[in-house]
Each structure stands twice: as C-alpha cells, then as structure tokens.
Amino acid sequence: MAAGFKTAEPLEYHRSFLKENCRPDGRELVEFRTTTLNIGSISTAEGSALVKIGNTTVICGIKMELANPSVEAPNKGYIVPNVDLPPLCSSGFRPGAPGEQAQAASQFMADIIESSEVVKTEDLCIERGKLCWVLYCDLMCLDYDGNLLDTCTIALLAALKNAQLPEVTVNAETSLPEVDLKKRKPLQIHRHPVASSFCVFDNSILIVDPTGEEERLSTAQLTVVTDEDGRLCSVHKPGGTSLSGERLQECISRAQVRHREIRKLIDKVAQSVTSGK
Amino acid sequence: LRTTMEVCSSDGFNVTLREFGCEQCLLSRPDGSSSFIQGDTSVLAAVYGPAEVKVSKEIYDRATLEVVIQTKVGLPSVKERSQEQCVRETCEASLLSSLHPRSSLTLILQVLHNDGSLLSCFLNAACMAFMDAGLPMSCLFCGVTCAIASDGQVITDPTATQEKESRALLTFAIDSTEQKVLMSSTKGSFSVHELQECIAISQMASEKIFQFYRESVQRRYSKTL
C-alpha cells in the first residue's frame, strides 16, 4: 500500500513525512546523508578523489598539461573544471552534448574556484609569459541521487589536496621544458570551500542534502559555499520560490557547521593516506 | 523611449541606480516584447507563447518555459547556460504556468550592449516582456546587482568597470509581493554581514524599480486609453 501511495502521490507521500519533521529515508530535516571519501583512487591521475553522499557518487581526477599563459594574464595558469553527467548515472540524462544541469554545474565549480581562490592561478605559472600549468579537473558523476554540487565540491577539494605537481625546469640552451616526474610537490591550497545544499518544500519547509526525488518535488534549491573563516564564497539560488533574509541566515549557520564536519573528514582521510604509505 | 532618473537615499544607505529605460511592444512578431536599458547596458526580450510544445518537452500539468540568451558576438557559452538557468527558474516561480498546461513559452534575451549588471537587466527585461505578453503571474520580479568595492562600500547597479574593480559581485531577484529573494547568484567572497547588507539594499532598490515598472506601464497606456 505504502509503495503504491509513493508512486501515485509522491508529493503527498513526502508531505506526510515532513509533517512529522522527518523524511522518508529516516533522516531529520537538517541531517546530511553519510558522506564517505576516498583519496587517490585513480593512480594514473595527478590527483583524484571519490566521494559518496548517500547514493550520489562523484569521482574527480586531475590531469596536468603544460601550456602558454594568455597575453592578458602572463603570470597565471589555468584551472578547467568540467562536470560530466553521463546517462549511466541517472535515467534523466541522455547521451550526447552536456545538458543544462551539467553546464551549470561546470560553471558553478569554475565560479567557486575563482571566488575562493582554493588554488591561486599564479601558483601554476612556471615562467612568466612563457610556460604554465593547466589543471583539468574532471568530475564524473557515477550515481545521481541529488545534491550534485556538494558532492562535486568535496571531490574537487580532496583531489586538489591530493594532487602533486612535478618539478619543471626550462633548459637554458634549447629553451625546452624538462619535467622531472620523480620530484613532486603538493599544490598549495589557500582556502577550503565546502558547499551545503538545501531544498524548499511547499514554499516553506527547509531541508538539507536533498535526494534526487526531493530535488524534483521541491519548489526551490539553494547552495551555500563557506570557507574556514566563515566567509561566503557563493550563495547560489538559481530561482524558485522566495526566501527571506532570516531563512537564508539559518542556511548559512548550518553550512558553517557542515564545513567543520567536512574539514575533519578530509583531514582524517588525508592523514590515513599518508600514514598508510 | 521612457527614461527616468532614479536616485534615492534612506536609512543611511545610498541606493543609486543608473538611468533606467524601458519600451514594451516594440516587435511585431512575438506575443510580448520589451527592451530594457540600465545606463549603457541594454537588453531586448521577446516572448512567444503559449504555443504548441514538442512532445519530448511536454509537462502534463504546466507550461514548459525555455529561455535563450543571445550574446552580442560569438556563440553562447557555459556562462550563458548558467544565466539561462537562473532566469528560467526565477520566471517559473512567478509565472502561473499551471494555467497553460502542455504548452510552450519561449523567452529570448538578446544582449544589445553590456556595461555591467547584465543578469539583473535580463531579469528586468524578462519581467516587462511577460507583462506585455499578458501572461498570468503571481508576482512581478526585478533584478538588482550589488558590487562590494575593495573598501567595503556597496555599489548598486555597477558598470562593467566597477564590476571589474569590485571584490565581490552579488545579483538578486526580488519579488514584488513580499520583497523576498527569488534568485541569488554571487561571485567573489564576502562575509555574512555583507550579504545581509546587500539583500537589504537590493530590497530598497527593488521598490524603486517596481515604481519605475508602474510609471512605464502607466505612461504606455495613458496614450491608448
């Protein structure tokens, strides 16, 4: 009976739970799903991480390439994030050119990198005006069950922390770059942005970490990105029903708590990786 | 072309907007059209619909809204897709699309000139075009862009130069009934206090913009009535 009710009237089904201040998967309204993190999962990439929030799985690989800096910014490298939502991860995505959600997510990741300066593009410059690094951050969703942006941000941050830059010297005679793959140093991470997503149900009820179904049924979505100093790197609300300044404040406070939880998780996993070596 | 100068100050904040201009019903083929000017930033909007919808895009209980942003030069990029998403979801929240189920609404936004605050100009042009098309809406909305300068000063409706020099850039869509935040898109980092200050300033600026909407429509109909 319950299964039939869920299929026929999904919104009513969710409402009946929210009325009792809980959700169909047994969580409270402000509770995140279990978050798991694995660092260095891809040995062929310079840095990588696999993140799971509930069922949602995102893998991030970082590849590096040498390039010429642009004329406008001769002392800066490039960071190119790309979010891929293949048909594998959900029936909602078709093969072919990336859809609006994937493109919007890619833009969101690029905005976070620029706003938070997690890695400064100046650090990627090898020789001013001549040589710099390009970091390709490929984020692939393996299983889509809501809250893509949070999962992607954690994956990106963990992969950047894991990434190792090989040493490059420019040969004075031939003026060709020489890469020493044995000598590597980690990227300098200046700040740690962590995202927290929220959904608004029936124009009033606020829930955190929405599942795929909750996202579909919700009337608005909001993602807040904070750093370790409690500053905001992004308040992204692409539309939907309106929120007052007070409700926004609630979300920010929750996001700051979430930031500390995720920082702890990343540090713990990073430590176990280095001690396991 | 109807233009008014908007300068006001209250509660210690100085909310200064550039010269605004709006013209409705300037294109003959679309069901609704408008051009919106904020200083030197200018956007042309056209609305088609309710019209027939492709079966693959049909939604059984409401209209399908499609937003297309056309840049002045070059092909639309990922940035435009992200802006399209912001505009579309804001419009979906205010349009009563359930009154036109299984039909399509198309909004085309053509950039004529970009001198900063482009996203807010998109939103304003969209709202005026929907009004011209006579589509039922639960509320009006407007866009306000705030730039936080390096000295912490908040500049409303910044120009492209002011945007470039700013430390953070925040764009909000505000609804006309409760003055709450419909959409928020930010760049750069800022404190929680600065965010709340920008929202408060945007809400004040929105009153001025809605007043401008009213005057603009009043002037348009005063000629025909």
Automatic annotation (TrEMBL), chain A:
Signal sequence span per UniProt?
none
Q: Name one GO cellular component term.
A: nuclear exosome (RNase complex)
Instruction: Tell me the domain of life.
Output: Eukaryota
Pfam families noted in UniProt:
RNase_PH (PF01138), RNase_PH_C (PF03725)
| Domain (Exoribonuclease phosphorolytic): residue spans on this chain | 31-166, 193-256
Query: InterPro entries annotated for this entry?
Result: ExoRNase_PH_dom1 (IPR001247), ExoRNase_PH_dom2 (IPR015847), ExoRNase_PH_dom2_sf (IPR036345), Exosome_comp_Rrp42_subfam (IPR050590), PNPase/RNase_PH_dom_sf (IPR027408), Ribosomal_Su5_D2-typ_SF (IPR020568), Rrp43 (IPR033196)
| GO MF term list | mRNA 3'-UTR AU-rich region binding
Cellular localization per UniProt: Cytoplasm; Nucleus, Nucleolus
GO BP of this protein: exonucleolytic trimming to generate mature 3'-end of 5.8S rRNA from tricistronic rRNA transcript (SSU-rRNA, 5.8S rRNA, LSU-rRNA); nuclear mRNA surveillance; nuclear polyadenylation-dependent rRNA catabolic process; rRNA catabolic process; TRAMP-dependent tRNA surveillance pathway; U1 snRNA 3'-end processing; U4 snRNA 3'-end processing; U5 snRNA 3'-end processing
Under SUPFAM superfamilies, the record lists: Ribonuclease PH domain 2-like, Ribosomal protein S5 domain 2-like
Q: Which UniProt keywords apply?
A: Cytoplasm, Exosome, Nucleus, RNA-binding, rRNA processing
What does the sequence similarity comment in the record state about its family?
A: Belongs to the RNase PH family.
**Stated name of the protein:** Ribosomal RNA-processing protein 43
Instruction: State the organism of origin.
Output: Gadus morhua
Task: Name the gene that codes for it.
Answer: EXOSC8
TrEMBL record, chain B:
Please indicate if the UniProt record lists Hydrolase as a keyword. no
Gene3D superfamilies the record matches: GHMP Kinase, N-terminal domain
Gene Ontology terms: cellular component: cytoplasmic exosome (RNase complex); nuclear exosome (RNase complex); nucleolus
Q: Where in the cell is it found?
A: Cytoplasm; Nucleus, Nucleolus
One Gene Ontology molecular-function label: DNA binding
Q: Does the keyword Nucleus apply?
A: yes
Q: Which GO terms describe its biological process?
A: nuclear mRNA surveillance; poly(A)-dependent snoRNA 3'-end processing; rRNA catabolic process; rRNA processing; U4 snRNA 3'-end processing
Q: Give the taxonomic lineage as stored in the record.
A: Eukaryota, Metazoa, Chordata, Craniata, Vertebrata
Give the top-rank taxon of the lineage listed in the UniProt record for this protein: Eukaryota
Principal localization reads cytoplasm
Task: Show where the Exoribonuclease phosphorolytic domain sits.
Answer: 17-136, 140-202
Q: What's this protein's family per the entry?
A: Belongs to the RNase PH family.
Q: By its UniProt entry, which PANTHER family does this protein fall under? A: EXOSOME COMPLEX COMPONENT, EXOSOME COMPLEX COMPONENT RRP46
Keywords of the record = Cytoplasm, DNA-binding, Exosome, Nucleus, Phosphoprotein, rRNA processing
What Pfam family is a match for this entry?
A: RNase_PH
Subunit-structure text = Homodimer. Component of the RNA exosome core complex (Exo-9), composed of EXOSC1, EXOSC2, EXOSC3, EXOSC4, EXOSC5, EXOSC6, EXOSC7, EXOSC8 and EXOSC9; within the complex interacts with EXOSC3, EXOSC8, and EXOSC9. The catalytically inactive RNA exosome core complex (Exo-9) associates with the catalytic subunit EXOSC10/RRP6. Exo-9 may associate with DIS3 to form the nucleolar exosome complex, or DIS3L to form the cytoplasmic exosome complex.
What is the protein name given in its UniProt record? Exosome complex component RRP46
